[in-house]
Amino acid sequence: MKHIFPKLIWLLAGCCLWLSEIQPLFAAGEQPNVVVFLADDAGWGDYSHSGNTMVNTPHIDSLARQGVSLERFFVCPVCSPTRAEFLTGRYHPRGGVRGVSTGQERLDVSEKTIADAFRAAGYATGAFGKWHNGSQWPYHPLARGFGDYLGHTAGHWGEYFDAPLDDNGRMVRTRGYIVDVCTDRAIAFIERHRNNPFFCYVPFTTPHSPWAAPEEDWKRFECRPITQRGTLPDQEDIDQTRCALAMVENQDMNVGRVLSKLEELNLSDNTIIVYFSDNGPNSWRWNDGMKGRKGSTDEGGVRSVCYLRWPARLPAGLKVPEIAGAIDLLPTLTSLAGVPHAKDLPLDGIDLSPLLLRETETIPDRQIFSTWAGRVSVRTRQHRLDDKGELFDMWADPGQTRAISKEHPELTASLREAVRNWRAEMFPESTKNGARGRNAVDPRPIGVGYREFPVTMLPARDGEPRGAVQRSSSAPNSSYFVNWKSIEDEMVWLVDVQTSGRYEVTIDYTCPIEDAGSTIELRHGERALIGKVEPGWDPPLYTNQDTLPRPPAESQMKEFHGLRLGILSLDAGQGPLVLRALEIPGNSVMDVRRVTLTLLP
Question: Quick check: pTM over 0.70?
Answer without folding.
Answer: yes
